[in-house]
Amino acid sequence: MSIKLNIQNASFRDYELEYVRPLVETASMLLSERTGQGHEMLGWLDLPHTYDREEFARIKAAAKRIQTQSQVLVSIGIGGSYLGARAGLEFTKGPFGNQLHTGRGVEVYFAGNNLSSSYVADLLDIIGDRDFSVNVISKSGTTTEPAAAFRIFKAKLEERYGKEGARERIYATTDKAKGALRGLAKAEGYETFVVPDDIGGRFSCLSAVGLLPMAAGGMDIDQVMMGCLDACERYQNPELLQNDSMLYAAARFLMLMKGKKVEILASYEPALVQFGEWYKQLMAESEGKEGKGLFPVSASFTTDLHSIGQFIQDGSRTLFETVLWVERARREITVPADPGNVDGLDFAAGMTLQTMNEKAMKGTLLAHVDGGAPNLVITLNELSDYTFGELVYFFWKSLAVSGYMIGVNPFDQPGVEAYKKNMFALLGKLGHEGAREALEKRLESLN
Ligand code: PA5
Question: Residue 375's closest CA among 11, 44, 86?
Answer without folding.
Answer: 11
